[in-house]
Amino acid sequence: MSSKKKRAQTIMHIDLSLDAAEDEEREVEGAHADGDQHHHQQEEEGGEKISLNGGKEGSSHREDSQKEEKDQGCENPIAKDTIKDELCALQAEMDRVKEENKRLQEVIDRTLNGYYELQMRVADIQQQEQPKEHRVSLSLGGGSFQEPTKAGEGEQIEEPSVADQSGDLGDDKELGLSLSLRTLAGPHADTSEEKGKGLKSWQPLDDKLQTGGFSTVTTQSINPATRKTRVSVRARCQGPTMNDGCQWRKYGQKVAKGNPCPRAYYRCTVAQGCPVRKQVQRCLEDMSILITTYEGTHNHPLPVGATALASAAATAANFMLPNDANPSSSTADTAPLSYLNPYLANPSSHLPPMNSLTRSTGYSSIFGAASGNDHGRQQPSSATYPWAASSIPNPGFAGGSSWLPNKGTWNGEDANKSLAGNTGAIASDSKFTAAVQAAISSFINKDGRTSAHRRGE
DNA sequence: CGGCTTTGACCGGCGC
DNA sequence: GCGCCGGTCAAAGCCG
After folding, report:
1. What span, in angstroms and rounded, lies between the C-alpha atoms of A328 and A388?
2. pLDDT for A365-381, tens place per residue?
3. Which parts of the chain span the membrane according to its record (predicted)?
């Protein structure tokens, strides 16, 4: 698939996301609109989506109809009465539809609430069974990845993603943003083990991701031996690398044992001497999944496009972390969280005030990135990545990424409680969703502007 | 021509 | 000590 097509998909997605707002707008207009207006609404009721352009066309069409009716009205007063009656009938119909929508919305809310409760319960139960080291995964995007629990291990908490529901219920009203939080407890959070076993166990949830084109699941781990932290990001991405807003230079490539797909090594070149490195490798079981592992701490301010999602990740992180009372939180200062950036003190201007969200200052420096511009010269190479279609000249679509910190020394009981609570809280907390939405929308807007610019609009 | 990718060589950690 | 393996280096080549 070409990058243009991908861009078109993104645009289409935006169009769909705006349907709800536009719908409401139309309903307001409906009070003094004509019958044609209702015609459009009926189309929407039938499940047919109207994009922004479609809406514009519709309104112009409406104007024409109004003119026609005006003409008719001047000529025939009886027809005018008929139109008035029609209008009344349509308004009544519209009210009925509104009420129906309300009822449906309530059903959705109830379903979601029930789902969240179940999710929390599952997390609670699992953590009581496995009070071990934790990993936290954050998924952003149009879908999420399923984590099949490995037979015999049972260490990963399998939680049906919020995305599943949002995909079913809210795909016509929401931004297409879904949040999925997973808590993972494993005997060894080191990435090397993760890469060897854990990563392979990650499976794509559904094919929505392929069309959604933007999805990440991240895990963050601290190697207890070296105190080196790593962030592993899984993203469905057709390109050779995921665009995370930073500039990278490839310095090596190796074929790792057990995975015929070569692992590429990149260094951050945004600033000289930046120690951050990343490894990029295709998932063995699903070539469309790109596993990116970040290591190190940026010694430079992040690109603007990279900060928004980073803030979301930081917000998520703060939700997932033990509170300040936990003395172990001080380890965050000594053991730099992977892919952190101390320059992200003020997460993002896109976001609402984060005071209430950044409870732990030690984690305000989490770095995450998403950008629509591929600054790096990470050109796809079909020779290197045979699965990457040669028709992709440039991965214009960018997989977002986010990172969540994990305490190297997570405190048992309190952590478990707060983690379980936070899992549910983070999904339902309006601040968090607002932060993520802001991040995603900034990403989408950016991408949208770029594509619009390219199309000469 | 500068910056990047490619790729074989090299190095260090780890298990046997 | 040896071999394996992951990670890094650096020269050569490519590209805009």
Report:
1. 43
2. 333 333 333 333 444 34
3. none
Residue with more model confidence, A116 or A153: A116
Question: What's the pTM value of the predicted model, to 2 decimals?
Answer: 0.43
pLDDT greater than 80 at residue A389: no
- Helix, strand, or coil (residue A128): helix
- Strand B close to A249 by CB, under 7 A: yes
* The token pair that represents A310 in the structure block: 């980073």
Nearest nucleotide by C1' position to the A250 CA atom: B5
Å between CA of A322 and C1' of B5: 43
| Contact indicator for A120, A183 with CB cutoff of 8 Å | no
User: A444-447: which pairs have CB atoms within 8 A and are 24 or more residues apart?
Assistant: A444/A10, A444/A13, A444/A14, A444/A175, A446/A305, A446/A371, A446/A372, A446/A373, A447/A7, A447/A10, A447/A372, A447/A398
**For residue A170, what is the enclosing H or E element?**
none
Across the range A142-150, mean pLDDT stands at 38
* Residue A154 dihedral angles phi and psi, to the nearest 5°: 60, 30
pLDDT over threshold 80, residue A263? yes
Residue closest to B5, CA→C1'? A250
pLDDT at A280 over 50: yes
Helical (H) or strand (E) element with A159: none
* Bases in strand B with any atom closer than 7 Å to a protein CB: 3-9, 14
